[in-house]
């Protein structure tokens, strides 16, 4: 008689083991994919933030270049003798021979009549007066 050999193949345990390994593999792939997806989203947000910052800095640069050009124009204009003469004449510091400088002083406001004192918050005597 032939001796029966024990079968090392167990169909149920092998199927369970295969399903477990497949599930574990899918879980690991999904976990790694999830981590990569989160990192990708963070990188995308950071990229958008940096792009907006770049646009802001470019617009600031353009504004500063325009201001620089305006200031350079003012410098060259200020170095011209005609412009300097005009400014000095406006301030009354320069006159040509035969000219007279007339200075107009603005009129001082007239002080108000010394009638009843107005209510002043720091003067307690005016708090209860009837006006």
Characterization of the model:
The protein is an all-alpha fold and 131 residues long. It has a domain at 15-95. The chain has 2 helices and no strands. The chain is elongated. The N and C termini lie far apart (135 Å). The model has no long low-confidence stretch (mean pLDDT 83).
Task: Name some characteristics of this structure.
131 residues; 2 helices; mainly alpha
Strand composition percent: under 5%
Give the class from helix and strand content and strand pairing. Answer: mainly alpha
**What's the order of the H and E elements?**
HH
Q: Total helix count?
A: 2
Q: Radius of gyration from the CA trace?
A: 45 Å
Largest sheet: none
Regarding quaternary structure, how should these chains be classified? single chain
Distance between the termini: 135 Å
Global geometry: elongated
